[in-house]
């Protein structure tokens, strides 16, 4: 008699799971746990993704989902600054908690050195010599970054390297 052994595929599946599925699972977990901040934040992120999918009438790929999550973090950082200027510690704490929730779904961010080396490689590949060639460099660089660094940070590094 043969015995059939099943591999424990759940851990491998979770590692390669796409971000939309992770968000949906996190929403279920937050609802079960009664975590209001996580539940509301994940719902807002899923709603933003769904809205873009409806507007464009396509199912978004992983890079587009990560870009939307980056945009959500950017909006919350702006709200955080406004709350600090208005001296509202309650809103500051709420925005920081929301940023932490959304950050958990993004891949590990590039360090400054990693980002600089990627930018230098893209500059060499594009043959860029001046800030006027920044568009060519960004066109090559942004697909390689895919949500691991904010666009404004990337453009700042590229601009600094091209001005030298």
Sum up the structure in keywords.
164 residues, mainly alpha, Hypothetical Protein Yqey, Chain: A, domain1, Arc Repressor Mutant, subunit A, 8 helices
Q: How would the blueprint of this fold be written?
A:
Layout lengths: L9 H7 L2 H15 L2 H21 L5 H24 L3 H15 L8 H15 L7 H12 L5 H13 L1
Helix pairs in contact: 2-3, 3-5, 4-5, 6-7, 6-8, 7-8
Task: Summarize the structure in words.
There is one protein chain. By secondary structure, the chain is mainly alpha-helical. It has 2 domains: 16-103, Hypothetical Protein Yqey, Chain: A, domain1, CATH 1.10.1510; 112-163, Arc Repressor Mutant, subunit A, CATH 1.10.10. The protein is 74% helix and 0% strand. The protein is built from 8 helices and no strands. It has helices at 10-16, 19-33, 36-56, 62-85, 89-103, 112-126, 134-145, 151-163. Helix 3 (36-56) packs across helix 5. The longest helix is centred in the middle third of the chain and has 24 residues, at 62-85. Mean pLDDT is 85; it is low at 4-16.
């Amino acid at each position: 008699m043969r015995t059939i052994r099943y591999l424990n595929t759940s851990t491998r599946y979770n590692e390669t799971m796409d971000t939309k599925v992770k968000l949906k699972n996190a929403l279920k977990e937050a609802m079960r746990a009664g975590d209001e901040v996580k539940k509301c934040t994940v719902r807002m992120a899923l709603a933003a993704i769904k809205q873009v999918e409806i507007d464009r009438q396509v199912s978004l790929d992983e890079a587009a989902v990560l870009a939307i999550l980056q945009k959500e973090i950017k909006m919350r950082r702006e709200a955080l600054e406004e709350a600090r200027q208005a001296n509202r510690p309650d809103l500051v704490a709420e925005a920081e908690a929301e940023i932490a929730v959304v950050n958990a779904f993004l891949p590990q961010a590039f360090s400054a050195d990693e980002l600089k080396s990627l930018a230098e490689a893209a500059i060499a590949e594009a043959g860029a010599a001046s800030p006027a060639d920044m568009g060519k460099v960004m066109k090559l660089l942004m697909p390689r970054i895919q949500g691991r660094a904010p666009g404004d940070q990337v453009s700042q590094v590229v601009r600094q390297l091209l001005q030298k």
